[in-house]
C-alpha cells in the first residue's frame, strides 16, 4: 500500500532553491571546462603527446567499453599520476553533473506525483524556479555534448584510476552511459520529459499574456507610453495596479529561453494554437540563444537538426520548414526591430532619470518602473552582444546592415541604466520608508481580511500566513530612522512554501481558486524586496557582467564612444560596468574569482586611463591654441605693425595702393553669428563633455579596488604638463637651438591659464598640479620619470653653448655692464647670433621666474664648477712660474728687475685668457643674481627685506657664511661669494698644501700680466657698451671674486692686504706702459688703464684714494677722455 504524499514533507520550495543554485554553479563549471579545452595552450600536456594519439583514438572508438587490460592503453600507465592530477577537476565535474541530473529528475518526478499546477501569474516563485531549473539542465547537457574531448577525458581518467588503484572509477559506467545517451542531448531529454510535459506546458502557456506584452515593437511601446511617468499625471503618486507585479520586470531573454527549450521538450504539443504562437514569436525575435555567458546556439539550425533526428515522425518535416521560415524572418526583421527598441529605451530611460533626479520622492510609488526599464534595457544589450558576436553563416545569403549592430549610442543607454541604479541606491531610504509604511499600513490589513475570508485553512498554511502577517504588521518607520537591518528572506521563503503546498492537486486550498490572495502575496513579496533586497534587485534586473566575456566588443564600443564626441560624457559608464564583473562568479567556481577580478581591475584602469588621456589631449590642443594667441602678443611682433605703419605713410605720400593690413591679435574673438563653430569651440565642447564623465562619480568600486576618476586624470595631467613644459623649450642638443626664456614664460603662463580654467569643468585642485609639477622643473631631473628639466636644459645651454660662444669668439660677443646684457657685435657676411635675445636682464628675469631660486642656485653651482676648473688650470700655470712670481712679488718697487722678470714669465696669454673666462662666467652669474633679486623683490618683498636685514647686521664671522648662503640664494650681492667658495673648497687639487702661497702668486701673475693686454686690438674699450671688445673688463670681477674666495678659504683673513698688494703690483706694471716706445705694445694702453679703475669700483675693499696713491688720477682721466673720444668717432 502506497503512502500518501505529505506536501510539507516534500520540501519542494527548498529543493528548487538549492538545485537552481547548484545547477547554475555546474553550468559555469562545465562552461569553463569547454573553454579551457578549446584552448590548445591550456590543455594538459599529454593531450599533444604522440604516444597518446593511439590511446585517445581507441578510447573514442570503443567508449564506454574500455578494457584497461588491453596493451593499447599501456602509455596511460606511464603518466597515470599526471592524468589523475590534470583530469580530476574535469572528471569530478562530470560526476557532479550526473549527480545533479539524478536530483533534478527525482524532484521533477516528485512534483509530477504531487500533480502540481504551475501558473506564473499566481505561483510566480514556484513556476519561475521550475522553468529556470529545466532550462539550466538543458543548457548543461547541451554544453556537455559540445565538449569534443569529453569521451577522452572520462576514458583517460578511468584508465588512470584503474592503473593507480587497481579498479576503475565507480561512477564511470553510469557517466559513460550518460554521454552516449545524451549525444545528441535534446532527443533523450524530450523522451525523459514526456511524463513531465503535462506540468511543463501549463507553466509555459501561463506566459501567453506576459511575453507578448514584453515583445512589442518600439512604435507600440511609444504609443502605449510604456515606461512613462507622465502618461497619467493624476495617478502619479499611485502604486501600480497590476495582478502580476513580479512578472513586470521579468527578463524577456529568460522567457524566450523558457519557451524555446521548454517547447523543444514538449514538441508534440506544437500543433496547439497557444504553444505555436509562443514558439513562433520567440523564434522570430532573434537567431542566437544564450546557453551560458558567451556560449550560444544558432537556435534555428539546432532545432532543425533536432527535428531531423526524430525519424519516423512525418510531421517533423513540416516543423523543419517552419523553423527555417522563422529563421529567415528573424534574420531580416529582428536587427531593425531591436535597433528601434534601443532608440526608444534611450529616451525612456533618460526621461525617467531626469524626473527621478528632480523628484526622488516618486521612487516610492513608482520604483517598479525603474526595474522594468532596467530589465528591458539589459535584454536589448544582451541581444546586441550575442548577435553582433555571432553573425549568421554565409549560406543564408542575407546581408545584414551594420548600422543595426554597430550602435554608436549604446554608451548613452548604458549610462542611463547606471544613472537609475545610482538613484535607487542614493534614495534607498526614501524607498524603504515608503514600503515599510505601505506593508504595515495597507498590506498587513488587507492580508488579515483575506485570511479571515478563508473558511477553511489547513494548519501548515495557517501557520505560514499568520507568520507573514505578524512580520509585516510589526514594522514601523522608526526602524528605518534607526538604520535597522531588515531581513524578509523568511517571509519570501514562507510564501514560496505556501505556493508549493497549495498548488498540489490534493491540497485543501487551491491557490488557483484564491486569485486575490495570490495576487496580494506576490505584491507583498515585491514590497519586502524594496525594503531589504534592493541591491539584489538591481543585480537581477541590470547586471551587465556579461561584458566580461565579450571583452573585444566591450573595447570596440568604448573606442566608438571616444571617437563620437556626442557620446563622450557617457564614457565613464565603461569603467563603472567593470564593477559588475564579479557578479558573474559563483561559489561553486571559486578558482575564477581571481581571473575575473583581475580582468575587471585591468579594464577599469585601461578605460579611466584612456578617458584621462583623451581629456589631456583636448587640453593640450587648447593650450597650443592659447600659446599661439599669446605668441602673437609678444613685443617682437609689434615690429610688423610699425613697419606697416611706415609703409602706409610712404604709400600715402606717393599715392600708391593701400598696404594690406596684417591680422591683429584678437580678431579670432569677433563673431558675426553663433552658428559657425571654430576649432576652439569644438575643443571646449569636447572638454565639457569629457569632464562631465570624470566628474560624474567620486569613486568606482571594482572588486576590492576603489578607482577615483579625477585622481587618474590629475596624475596624467601632471605628467603631461611636466612633459609639455620641457617640450615648449624646443631644445635641440644637436643644433643647440632653444626657446627664449621670455617666450617660454609666455607659453607657460598661457598654459597655466588654460589649466586653471579646468576647475570650471571638473572638481579638482589645479593648484595641486602646479605645486607638484613646477617645483620639479627647478631641479636637474624631474621626479616623475627622471627626465631632464627646464633647469637642466637651460643650465647646459647657457654654460656650454652661450658661454662657449662668448669665450671662443673673442670680439664678437661682449658683456655690457650698462645694458646688463651680453651683446653680439656682428660683422658683414656672418649669420648673426643675437646674444642679447637670450642673455639680457629681461630674459634672465624670465628664466628666474621659470626655474625659481632653486633652479638659479643649481645654475650658479654648475657655473662655479666651471670657474673652479679654470682656477685649477691657473694654479698649474702659477706652479710652472713659481720662482719668478716669488721674485716679482718682492720687487714691485724695482722697475728694471720687474721688466726682466716679466720677460721670463711663461703662458701669460693663457693666464689672461683663463682669467677673462672666469670674469665672463662671473659676470653672467652677477646678471643672473640681479635678475633673481628683481623677481623675488616683486614676489616676496617682505621676506627679502628680512634677508637684507640679516645680511647687514650679522657680524662678519664664520657663522656669517650661513647668512651669505641664504642671501646668495636670494640673488643678493655678497662681498665673498659663498657658492664660489664652496666650489673651490670641494675642487680636488694637487696643490692643497701650499694653497695660500699659490693664491698670492696667482694674484701677482695676473697683476704683472695686465699690461700685455694693451697689445691686443680687441682690448679696445667701447664706450657705448662700457666694456672691452675682448671682455677684459670682466677681469675686474674675476680678480675681486677669486681674491675674496681664495683668501677666505686659504688665508688667515688678510684679504684686504692681499688686494692692496695686487693693486700696488698692477699699478707699477701699468705705469711701465708709459715708458714703452713700441707702438704695438701700447696700442690700447688707455683702454687697459681703465681696468685699474674698474677693479677698484668692483671691490668692496679697495678705494679710489688707495688707487690714487699708486696710480695718478690724471692718467685715468686722460684715458677715459681718449677712449670715449675714439668711441664717439667710430660711432
UniProtKB/TrEMBL annotation:
<feature type="compositionally biased region" description="Basic and acidic residues">
    <location>
        <begin position="656"/>
        <end position="670"/>
    </location>
</feature>
<dbReference type="GO" id="GO:0030866">
    <property type="term" value="P:cortical actin cytoskeleton organization"/>
</dbReference>
<dbReference type="GO" id="GO:0016477">
    <property type="term" value="P:cell migration"/>
</dbReference>
<dbReference type="GO" id="GO:0048812">
    <property type="term" value="P:neuron projection morphogenesis"/>
</dbReference>
<feature type="region of interest" description="Disordered">
    <location>
        <begin position="649"/>
        <end position="670"/>
    </location>
</feature>
<dbReference type="GO" id="GO:0030031">
    <property type="term" value="P:cell projection assembly"/>
</dbReference>
<dbReference type="GO" id="GO:0031209">
    <property type="term" value="C:SCAR complex"/>
</dbReference>
<dbReference type="Pfam" id="PF09735">
    <property type="entry name" value="Nckap1"/>
</dbReference>
<protein>
    <recommendedName>
        <fullName>Membrane-associated protein Hem</fullName>
    </recommendedName>
</protein>
<comment type="similarity">
    <text>Belongs to the HEM-1/HEM-2 family.</text>
</comment>
<dbReference type="InterPro" id="IPR019137">
    <property type="entry name" value="Nck-associated_protein-1"/>
</dbReference>
